[in-house]
Write a structure and sequence with these properties.
2 copies of one chain form a homodimer.
Chain A (H helix, E strand, L loop, with lengths): L2 H9 L8 E3 L6 E3 L5 E11 L10 H19 L2 E11 L4 H18 L2 E9 L3 E11 L14 E5 L4 H9 L7 H12 L5 H7 L5 E4 L4 H12 L1 E5 L8 H6 L2 H10 L6 E5 L4 H10 L4 E9 L5 E3 L17
Parallel strand pairs in A: 4-5, 9-12
Antiparallel strand pairs in A: 1-2, 3-6, 4-6, 7-10, 7-11, 8-10, 9-11
Helix pairs in contact in A: 2-3, 2-6, 4-5
Chain lengths: ~325, ~325
């Protein structure tokens, strides 16, 4: 099977929205942006044995890569519109491709994001996705907008995905519903698009937790020229996580594990209760975990010790 | 060196145009399109030993990948604006990175295209570039616009890049200026952006010759529901190519070699002389190589034999 028939068979959408002037099938995709909007783009590569384990189910592979990529749009409070896929494959196995593309399109459907272009090459398995979203002019949430004294909030629970990865790799035993929940949290990390749109006019800065809370909150601190004081006992840990590991391990994963794809954001301290309460009415779970403080030598302080957190790594290191 | 310091050191542009609201340094790049324009995007992966030989100079590696990617914008007659880079590297060698990024930015400068985002991962060398350009609404040149009887034209010379690759791989001996010219044609395939803008209002369809003339013209034929008759003696072959191989080999490479990144396009037959002559005044070399004909069983007919061209492959097969 050559590249052209492979794309035709497994990756060509047969129906596009009006904003896709030309989808797959020419030298470029041609796309129409809404008026008075800015384009947001992010590109992300996932490699076997690095971003996901070898035994990871094929039908979740492209889907997970897409969830992770869309999470970067959520971090800006952008609305997903289109994505492209550069797929490198050891061989063109029809069963593999059918399963991969079916999972990918299911995930795409979740966000109403359309596959508009791609490239397939032969080589060691690699999945590169670029996502494209839109945001009203000057409404994007940046890392750099936090002010001193802002409340720091996170969505959902942290640490689950690291536990889930350990379960998938048979390094951690979890049982029944806990096992299912934790592995799902690694395998299918829904990007917090709706939450991001809710906080767009309320938050001063935002990032998604992909590399670990300390690493990602560190980026907000760097970009906003601030430090942060975190109350570690306030960090939201799920019942499934606490049922599967001890408190110290749960907290370590929550702070450094990464892969949760929750949002970490700041709001003026006087508004944080309203954000939590109004969010709850829409089904969103937000938790205050600390406050920004004036810039110090160390970015992130443990409020219990008054010292920086001590871990070997603050988050995922690619090299 | 971790991912963040690597990007800061080698890939962060320190000055952007006004259309880049946010470049590298947040979860997404934020980009502003000109009014009344459409966005054109294309993504392309290049792998060692597949798209370029292992001994290929590092300073030309990223540059070549960018030229090739920008060529897809030329094929639509779009103007280059931005690109993203997903780079997978076996290790983060400072000399390698300095040379790679310097060559990349030199090439970017040629097109005034700006690096706005990226991702670096650790693994077997792979370079994925997505290019973003703009075109006035409904002005893009598609593959599907050719009409029966249109003249088929190409820019520049064909077959040089295949010869150049063989020279680089020590499979072909070329001498002095011919050697330099042919290897340059493989290593630094300038995308035909200016030529494309010149033909925008004159051509009915367009593609860039990346996989080989027969393969790429075949895409125009498929999309336009036509066939083509080619006068092979009219196919433009460079002096350097003809000085280095016999006529039959030169023609084979011109028809099937790929990697030339010239434009192949159609114009109404009555206008082709004007296109060639007006183009020549601007320094562009266009050659008529045949005409479109009603759809037949075989896409592309050799006018000398009245039969399809006989080659093992019509062009580069990725699988």
């Amino acid at each position: 099977m050559n590249e052209f028939s492979l794309i035709q068979k497994y990756f060509k959408q047969h129906k596009y929205s009006k904003n896709v002037v030309m989808g797959i099938g020419d030298d470029c995709a041609i796309l129409e942006l809404p008026k008075q909007s800015h384009l947001c783009v992010s590109i992300d590569t996932q490699l076997v044995n690095r971003h996901f384990p070898e035994q990871f189910p094929v039908n979740l592979l492209g889907a997970r890569a897409l969830h992770c990529a869309v999470s970067d749009l959520a971090a800006m409070s952008a609305s997903p519109l289109w994505f492209t896929l550069a797929l490198t494959l050891p061989n063109a196995n029809p069963d593999w491709l059918a399963s991969f593309s079916e999972g990918l399109f299911d995930a795409a459907h979740t966000y109403s994001i359309q596959l508009v272009g791609g490239d397939t090459t032969s080589g060691p398995l690699a999945i590169t996705i670029q996502v494209h979203g839109v945001v009203d002019e000057n409404k994007a949430l940046l890392r750099s907008g936090a002010h001193e004294g802002d409340a720091i909030l996170v969505s959902g629970y942290l640490g689950d995905a690291a536990a889930g990865l350990n379960v998938i790799q048979n390094k951690l035993i979890a049982k029944g519903a806990n096992k299912q929940y934790l592995t799902n949290r690694f395998s299918t990390p829904y990007a917090r698009i709706k939450e991001a749109q809710f906080i767009q006019s309320r938050a001063t800065s935002c990032i998604d937790v992909s590399d670990g809370l300390l690493a990602d909150l560190g980026h907000i601190c760097d970009a906003s020229e601030l430090s942060a004081r975190i109350v570690s006992s306030e960090i939201p840990l799920s019942e499934s996580l606490l049922a599967s590991v001890d408190q110290a391990q749960a907290l370590t994963w929550a702070l450094t594990g990464g892969d949760d794809y929750e949002l970490c954001f700041t709001v003026p301290n006087e508004h944080y209760k309203a954000v939590i309460n109004q969010g709850a009415l829409l089904g969103f779970r937000f938790t205050k975990i600390g406050n920004t403080i004036p810039k110090m030598n160390k970015d992130i302080i443990d409020s219990e010790t008054g010292q920086p957190f001590h871990f070997l790594n603050r988050g995922y290191q690619h090299f």
